[in-house]
Amino acid sequence: MITIPLSADALAATRFAVSPLMQVGTVLHPHRPRTLGGNSLSYGEVSRVLREHRLHLLAAIRELVHAFEPVFYSPVFLTPPAAAGRTPEPSEDLHRIASAPSRVVAWQLSCLLGVQPKNGRAALAALRTLREAADRGEGDFAERLACELDTFWLRGFSRTWQTVAAQATDDIALRTRLLADHGMGYALGSLHEALCYGNGALRLLDRHSVEVSAGGHLVLFPSPWAHSLVLTVDPQGRRPAFLVYPTSPSTASATTGRADRPLEGKLGPTRYALLADLDVPRTTTQLAALHHLSPSTVSYHLALLHRAGLVTRARTRNFVYYQRTEPPVGPAPTAATQ
Q1: 213 and 65 both lie in a single domain
Q2: With contact defined as beta carbons under 8 Å apart, do 218 and 7 qualify?
């Protein structure tokens, strides 16, 4: 169990953010599965891109984060805290890396270069690569790293970024609705089945037993490219803890239908998200589990959707299945928005 104590002040400062660099860091994660569906890159595909384009610094950093298990660390200048209130452009994040002050690069690299390798020859080779690059100067190191990240971005993510950013934003809207309905503890627990919040701490189910600092508070990053939770901390506590979590499946289906998004303004985000997942028949219990809502809450929303002619329902034995009508029947409700 990984335990992250959160004081009242830390919980109050915890926030959500969307960041191109954190999405890239998720894909570079060394524990990535060997095969993945969708638009994301598997472990082998990431390795191939790094190798074919000679992205030696990224490959070396990827190798060394193994040493920080069960949580992970990458230099703070490589993952600068995301600005509040908007999603930065990839070029903005890359400029922040390339222009990082030399003194900042120097002391942050010292954390990475001071690890005790656990993976034999591969880790030793990675350390050698980073030390040789650092010997050329911290400014040169930061610029080279920004160039490698730019190449990696163009080869793997640039064409799908707008869709990915929209899915992450939709997920934040879903979690905000849960926070408003049930409180921050419930919203944190909804992020992943391995997470729970209680008694002033966030707990992550893991084979390790360790307590880590949140560095003041948490920044939560939804990622359609994440296959599991990724927790990164700064050993010196100079930035918040970053927690990347997989987006809810419902946000992907909702985003693909953006031509119909005016309907969301009439239905509200909760009912809109439920409706998006009713392209196939589902029961109240299934929807409640998928959206981390109580069955009674789902029943209330389904009743309104059915009354508006937006879903049909059919009984099979002891189960009632709901499904979206194609196209919607009747006017969308305008008074009962939530």
Answers
A1: yes
A2: no
Tell whether 225 and 296 lie within a shared domain. no
Query: What is the per-residue pLDDT across 16-71, written as a single tens digit (0 to 9) for each?
Result: 988 888 888 888 876 665 555 555 677 788 888 889 999 998 888 888 776 666 66
When comparing pLDDT for 114 and 175, which is higher?
175
Domain check: are 208 and 272 in the same one?
no
CB 24 within 8 A of CB 233: no
Cα angle at 60 between 49 and 44, to 5 degrees? 35
Boundary of a domain, candidates 185, 215, 249: 249
Contact between residue 266 and residue 331 where contact means Cβ atoms under 8 Å apart = no
**Measured distance CA(89)–CA(97) in Å, rounded:** 13
| Per-position DSSP letters for 163-232, written without gaps between them | HHHHHHHHHHHHHHHHHHHH-HHHHHHTT-TTEEEETTEEEE--SS-EE---TTSEEEEEETT-SS-EEE
For residue 63, CA distances in Å to 99, 113, 120 come to 24, 12, 11
Domain ranges, residue 299? 257-324
What CATH code is carried by the domain that includes residue 276?
1.10.10.10
pTM of the model: 0.68
Average pLDDT, the chain: 78
Neighbours of 40 (CB within 10 A): 22
Angle at 269 between CA 38 and CA 309, to 5 degrees: 100
Q: Per residue in 153-193, pLDDT tens? A: 887 677 778 788 888 888 888 888 888 888 888 888 888 88
Question: Which of these, 206, 172, 207, lies nearest to 191 by C-alpha position?
Answer: 172
